[in-house]
Amino acid sequence: xxxxxxxxxxxxxxxxxxxxxxxxxxxxxxxxxxxxxxxxxxxxxxxxxxxxxxxxxxxxxxxxxxxxxxxxxxxxxxxxxxxxxxxxxxxxxxxxxxxxxxxxxxxxxxxxxxxxxxxxxxxxxxxxxxxxxxxxxxxxxxxxxxxxxxxxxxxxxxxxxxxxxxxxxxxxxxxxxxxxxxxxxxxxxxxxxxxxxxxxxxxxxxxxxxxxxxxxxxxxxxxxxxxxxxxxxxxxxxxxxxxxxxxxxxxxxxxxxxxxxxxxxxxxxxxxxxxxxxxxxxxxxxxxxxxxxxxxxxxxxxxxxxxxxxxxxxxxxxxxxxxxxxxxxxxxxxxxxxxxxxxxxxxxxxxxxxxxxxxxxxxxxxxxxxxxxxxxxxxxxxxxxxxxxxxxxxxxxxx
Amino acid sequence: xxxxxxxxxxxxxxxxxxxxxxxxxxxxxxxxxxxxxxxxxxxxxxxxxxxxxxxxx
Lengths: 399, 57
What we know:
Strand content of chain B: 15-25%
Order of helices and strands of chain B: EHEEHE
Largest sheet of chain B: 2 strands, antiparallel
Radius of gyration of chain B: 10 Å
Radius of gyration of chain A: 21 Å
CATH topology of the domain at 5-46 and 97-169 and 263-332 in chain A: FAD/NAD(P)-binding domain
Structural class of chain B: alpha+beta
Oligomer: heterodimer
Strand order of the largest sheet of chain B: 1-4
CATH architecture of the domain at 5-46 and 97-169 and 263-332 in chain A: 3-Layer(bba) Sandwich
CATH class of the domain at 5-46 and 97-169 and 263-332 in chain A: Alpha Beta
Largest interface: A-B, 31 and 20 residues
Helix content of chain B: 10-25%
Mean pLDDT of chain B: 94
Number of strands of chain A: 16
Shape of chain B: globular
Structural class of chain A: alpha/beta
Distance between the termini of chain B: 10 Å
Number of helices of chain A: 11
Strand content of chain A: 25-35%
C-alpha cells in the first residue's frame, strides 16, 4: 500500500526517474515513483542505441536487455557515398522495455516504491510552497504529500510548467520523430546506419539500429522548424519505399526529442527536473539515456542529502545544477553549437564530411583521427568539432 | 487548434513546444484548451503524427 506522505515523489519511471529514485532511496529517503503507463519502458519512444561505457556505471551488464551489439556505424551522404566508422562492440541496441523495468527493480531494491497507471495532474501548494502531487489513479483524484518533487516526465515536461519553469522549446530545438520497428530487414546485425541530406531528413537524420535477426528500428528525426510543409513520416515513407521496400513494419511510434543545450531553470524550492524534462539530451545526436542517468544520479544524491538535512530550498538543491555543470554542462553547450552548425549544413558539406571519413584507413580509424582529417579538409567547419571532441574526452576521463 | 484523437499517439511533442500551456494531457487523450490557445500553430507544425488541425493566426 502506498503511504500518504513521502520525502520524495518522482513523476515518471523512465531511466531518469528510476535512477533518481534509486540513489535517493539508497541513502535512506522515502521515495515513491509514479508512472502514467501500465509498465516502465512502454511505449518505446526511442531508437535504443547506447554506448557500453555510458551505461556501465548504472547497471550490471545482462544480455536480456541487449538486442544487438554494434561494431560499426555507416554514414550515408546525400550523394549516396558511404563511410564506415568502427567501434568494435562498444555500441549496444537495447530492449528498452526490459532495460527500463530492470532499472525499476534496482530502485525498488534500494527501497523506492512504485505506483503504476498513476497520472500526475498538478502540484499541491501549502503556504506558497510545493507540498505534494495531485494525480489520477484507478478513476479517482488523489493527492500525495511530499517534501520534494522530481519531474522525470519526459519531453513534455509538464511538471516543470506546473512549477512555473519555462520548459517550452523553440521549434529548432526539437526534432519531430517517427520510428518503425520492422521485420524482414536484411542488413547486417552489427552495423547501424545514418542517412543525411536535406531531401532525406532536413535538420536531422534517418537511423537504422538492428535489433535481432531481421528486425531493426528505422526512424527519422527532422528539425521542428523545417517540418511545416512535410512531416517526418512523409520523409521516412519516401526513404523506405526507395531503400527498404521489402520490410514490414510491426511497431510504429511517434515522438519528440529535445535538442536544446539544456534548460535555464530546472530547480526551485521543493522541485527538480531530470532527463528529457530538463532537456538533458545530447543536442547533436539526440541521445538521452546516458545523460538522463548521469543527471538522475546527481539529483538523487542531492535529494537524499536534502532529506537528511531537512532543507529543500533552491539554495540547497542547486548543488545538483553545480554537479551537472561540472560533469556535462560544458559539453552540452559545445554539442549545441555543433548542432546549430550541422542543422544548417547543405548537402555539399555532408558529402564532403563523408568523403573525409572514407579516406581514413580502417586500422587507423579513431575519432581523433577523424577530427584531425576533418580539420585539414574543412578547417572552418571542423574547428568547433575538434574542440568539442577534446572537451568531451576530458570530461569522460573525469567521469 | 484541435487534436484529431484517432491520429494522436499521446507522445507529448505538442506539449513540449506550446508557449501558452494550452495542451491538456489526460490518461488516454490529449486535448487543447481553446481559451488558452493563442493559435500560433507550433503544435501543429511539430506533431509527428499530423494529428493537429486548425488555422494559425
